[in-house]
Amino acid sequence: MKKPAALYYTGCEEHHYQPHFLDVCSLCQRPLAHNHDIFMYRGDTPFCSQECRQEQIEMDEANERKWKIAASKISSRTKTETPTKETDVNKAVRNGTVAVA
């Protein structure tokens, strides 16, 4: 009869595999071969091919154009808004130097 092996708690949790950021293409999720070229974009984003990288660049540029258009619409709306309070319309403002004695 065999004695059961003693088990000791070492304080280590079970390790879960976390993939390295260079394991798969950021666009199509294909595995990146370690003996082939990896195409990088914006410093730390890997792609399996120039085509995948270019597609991501084009998507980012399209999103940036949308944001700029939306921002310009918002800024043009705020410039053309008229005051809603009657007191704001009737205020007089003078420019110049004020001397207080």
TrEMBL record:
Stretches with biased composition (Basic and acidic residues): 78-91
Keywords: Metal-binding, Zinc, Zinc-finger
Stretches the record annotates as Disordered: 74-101
Domain FLZ-type: start-end pairs: 20-64
InterPro entries reported for this sequence: FLZ1/2/3, Zf-FLZ_dom
GO molecular function, one term: zinc ion binding
Keyword Metal-binding included in the entry's annotation: yes
Zinc finger (FLZ-type): 20-64
Domain of life: Eukaryota
Keyword Zinc-finger part of the UniProt annotation: yes
One Pfam entry name: zf-FLZ
Recorded family membership: Belongs to the FLZ family.
Protein known as: FLZ-type domain-containing protein
